[in-house]
Model the fold of this input.
Amino acid sequence: MTRNRPSLDRAAELRDEPDVIDRLRQEPGTRVVVVREGRVRVSDLRLVRTDPAEPIDAAWALLGREQDGTPLLVAAVPREEEPVDAAPEETWLGLRDLGASLDAAEADLLVTALAVAGWLRDAAFCPTCGGGTELRQAGWSRRCLACGRDHFPRTDPAVIVAVESRDGERLLLGANANWGGRMYSCFAGFVEAGEPLESTVQREILEEAGVALSAVHYVSSQAWPFPRSLMIGFRAVVDEESAARPDGEEIIDVRWFTRAQIASALAGDGPVGLPGPASIARALISRWCEGDA
Done:
């Protein structure tokens, strides 16, 4: 969730240094996180850092510096490449696999590595003219070789909202059609062009659950690289509880849950499934259940 200080120094002052990736790959102290199809090598709940001088067919970018000053790169390996061999004590895992098991520094590093690797992998062509692009700024921008436009990693803001009753004793959750009614979660949606966050919150909840809101306030945020979202978490109170109803398309059911029911579901004992521990949705639900403001 939101932290006062970033755990990764992104070293933006190095990005315009000519050939900085090549230089860092030759320095003995530099390390690299290899990403393949949204997974990284993990050992003992830490991302494996390897020697960047090893020959790897990959797209490269500068992640920054670790807390001890170690330069850190990311190498995005193409899908068709064979995975880099992992040691017996290592395994390839993704963000959903790791859940909330990583500490704050490792979680920040994982999310950043996945987001940058996705940009390196998926943005090879100019969205304006379709021309090929070349990487610049140590992997943090691309310049179109045809029209000359500069492009940068895209982030799509989305709101996610824990909706509570007027007395604060019940939580409204919805079942997405994609889940087949097996799991209930907070309501979420992308911010539209020209739309303030507060308006997105009101619009999305009215569309999906049929209720108007009051007392909307920000809680925390989470980068979510599936593929490039920034989830912005809120809590809000409904105006009229009885108005709650699903939209019937994206949301197939909405239900009010007591704290006892949510606590049981968080423990895995039902009555419904809840989002996994890696998600901000889970954090919002847990925070409400524990009575945090």
Q: What stands out?
A: The chain has six helices and 15 strands. The longest strand covers residues 213-224.
